[in-house]
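Sequence in, structure out. Go.
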Amino acid sequence: MSYLILLPHLRIENANAVAGLTWGFPAITHFLGYTHALSRRLESADGLVLESCAVICHEHQVHAHSSGRDYQFALTRNPLTKEGKTASFNEEGRMHLTVSLLIECRGEILNGEYGKNALAEKLKHLCPSHKLAGGTITGMREPRIFDYPGDDGALRKILWRLMPGFALCDRSEWLEEHHRALRQQRPEATLLEAWLDFAALKYRASDEGGDDGEVEWLYQPKPNPGYLVPLMCGYQRISPRYAPGTVANARDGETPFAFVEAAYGVGEWRSLHRITDLQTLLWRYSTTDTGYYCKAAPLPEEFTFYELDDLE
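Output:
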């Protein structure tokens, strides 16, 4: 059988706000890694497997301050060295955030509602014992266990518990479409250029200039509408796969080893009252011969409205 585990309003302090070339929110790989860590504990003790994870953000606070046009991270002050000099350190971006996780669970929970309540009580003590995105879980509301929703009404009852909140959805198919459109205009256009159209803030000088030579700089919108953000969504292998124990200083001498680099995609923050399909929320691992990636089902192209929504 399949269930949904709801971990509501996890309050996380000092989480990692930098993910490769992106910053402002932890990478989706952090949340799937946290799900995998919980799955290993539950599988050995209860025979349950956690397969996918949805991320709903309620609040976030990046430790950064504005210095004009740019932002700088508010860093900690390290103690001085014996010589009275400032010790070197690696710059780290940190943030506080409150998120809820919807986790798909496969297995059999015995004893009906009693078994669900026992699992929820176990998760209440187990979840804070793991780091999430390098941060410390300082509090959470009572976990809940639901039967897998079979219709839209059951799904919306679960999502109503999480409002107000915004869900992180996968929009990487838009990146591929935009790349194909660029190649029709310029055959040498790269996938990185297409991704930067989503990730970067771009301005273009207007065609008409004033008599004094000054021009107006116009903001260039992103290729598609919506609250779109760049994402780090996996790792791409850049070396052969080495046999276990052949690479010096590897963390695990019993697992094949390969050098990798971060892979990127595009995501969209969407309000929960616009969600009609649970699969568009659930991120999963997608493993290939060249790496592993985090993906979710694509969102429908049309906007969906309900009679109780406030429309303008």
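Check: Confidence is low (pLDDT under 50) at residues 304-312. Residues 90 and 301 are 42 Å apart (CA to CA).
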